[in-house]
Design goal:
The protein has a domain of 288 residues: Spore Coat Polysaccharide Biosynthesis Protein SpsA, Chain A. It is built from ten helices and nine strands. The strands form two sheets. Strands 1-4-3-2-5-8-7 form a seven-stranded mixed sheet, with helices on both faces. Helix 3 links the parallel strand 2 and strand 3. It starts with a helix and ends in a 6-residue tail after the last helix. 29% of the residues are buried. This is Hexosyltransferase. Its EC number is 2.4.1.-. One of its GO terms (biological process) is lipid metabolic process.
């Protein structure tokens, strides 16, 4: 306790001492005629507090040199005030980065090249450089409704063509040891292995037809889903059956024209000795025997410039975007198509394959493949041949063995239903009257 009292006594004495010294220092400093505030900028002139009656200068006033007036005293400038901020209206503004180097006038700037002039990167579906259309064959002008003005840019719905697509799967040996009378070009989806198997077991079975040589191949593009895995499965399927033709474009509905042109190219390059070709979809019933013996007739000379099927005439493109078959004016500007054979199934002489393939290199391709075949025929000045009535059916007909025995195609038969119908047809057809 005694120590604590001693501590507080000295503490109080220290406080009093400090206070006294502070008061004395303040009193002394107040007597100085130069106040610290006089050092502030723009402070009014300081008038020293002198008593005029008692002030008796010892020098002649003209010779007297008083001390500098405190306002005129040049104190050591404060670093922060050494360079006062200049008037914004007088200072030279710093150049705006966006104005320092003005952007070039777009009219003077070198424009980006037209996409049709750029060499595209190898995207299978977009890989195709656009042909210089100024060098293409001009469109015929006999019928104003068929004029096809060509442009240097490609609409998204226009298949990339012409371009030398590469064959990824190619059964070259199919026609090396024989000259088939009939080649079946079957259009289908790359992922639809079941439909291909069904056709191999039914009307696409080459061993069914012993009096004439028939070859079946399936036309596909690159799978859209699980591309690598699906492609490996296709390669395994090809090793087993050896009947798949594939090029490096994407397998989409709007690339059906590319599939058909791939078939034309394959026939002209790898099966030129064939007599006839049948292009057919994979959801069809096909009576190959009636096609061969009643329409094509092997005992007669092979036709030339022959193209037949269910002929569609006096139709035009659908312009509504809601339609599956929508074709904008940018793709096909005319209001009518030339006559064409309905896409589910048509037959033609093998010489037409090269002619169609060649002319397709010179005109704009449209996504509706059957309509495009009609445009090619128009360019070639080869009209489609009218078949006997009611043998090509682009719609579904209920199965009747004897009725089907006098038809070539019936639409909308596939899978297990096609297997069932084919089994009955193949075993019972001989009982039908001619």
């Amino acid at each position: 306790m005694a120590g604590e009292r001693t501590f507080w006594r000295y503490f109080k004495l220290s406080v009093l001492t400090i206070f006294s010294l502070s008061a004395f220092y303040y009193f002394i400093m107040r007597n100085d005629y130069v106040h610290i505030s006089s050092l502030l900028p723009n402070f009014p002139k300081f008038k020293p507090q002198l008593n005029p009656p008692e002030f008796k200068p010892q020098l002649n006033p003209p010779e007297f040199k008083p001390k500098p007036n405190p306002p005129e005293f040049k104190p050591k400038p404060n670093p922060s005030e050494f360079k006062p901020k200049p008037n914004p209206s007088e200072i030279k503004p710093k150049p705006n980065p966006s104005e320092f180097k003005p952007k070039p006038n777009p009219s003077e700037f070198k424009p980006k090249p037209n996409p049709s002039e750029i060499k595209p990167t190898p995207n299978p579906s977009e890989l195709k450089p656009q042909t210089n259309y100024t060098e293409l064959k001009p469109q015929p002008t006999e019928n104003p409704g068929l004029t096809l003005p060509l442009s240097t840019t490609r609409h998204p719905l226009t298949p990339p063509y012409p371009y030398p697509y590469k064959f990824l799967l190619n059964p070259k040996e199919k026609c090396q040891k024989q000259k088939p009378f009939l080649v079946l070009l079957v259009i289908g989806d790359s992922h639809d292995a079941n439909s291909r198997l069904t056709i191999r077991e039914t009307w696409g079975n080459e061993s069914n037809y012993r009096d004439v040589a028939v070859v079946t191949v399936f036309l596909i593009g690159i799978p859209r889903v699980k591309t690598e895995t699906s492609q490996k499965l296709l390669e395994e399927e090809m090793k087993t059956y050896g009947d798949i033709v594939q090029q490096d474009f994407m397998d989409t509905y709007y690339n059906l024209t590319l599939k058909t042109l791939m078939g034309m190219e394959w026939i002209s390059k790898y099966c030129p000795g064939a007599s006839y070709v049948m292009k057919i979809d994979n959801d069809m019933f096909l009576n190959v025997e009636y096609l061969v013996h009643h329409l094509l007739q092997p005992g007669l000379p092979v036709h030339q410039n022959y193209f037949t099927g269910y002929i569609v005439a006096n139709t035009g493109p659908l312009r509504g975007k809601e339609y599956k078959w929508y074709v904008p004016k940018e793709v096909y500007p005319n209001d009518t198509y030339p006559p064409y054979c309905s896409g589910p199934g048509y037959a033609f002489s093998a010489d037409m394959a090269k002619k169609i393939y060649d002319v397709a290199q010179t005109i704009r391709v449209v996504p509706m493949e059957d309509s495009f075949m009609g445009i090619c025929l128009y360019e070639l000045k080869i009209p489609p041949t009218n078949p006997p009535p009611n043998i090509f059916n682009g719609h579904r007909i209920d199965y009747d063995c004897c009725k089907f025995n006098k038809l070539i195609t019936v639409h909308h038969y596939k899978g297990d239903e096609l297997r069932k119908v084919w089994k009955d047809f193949w075993t019972q057809r001989s009982g039908c009257k001619d």
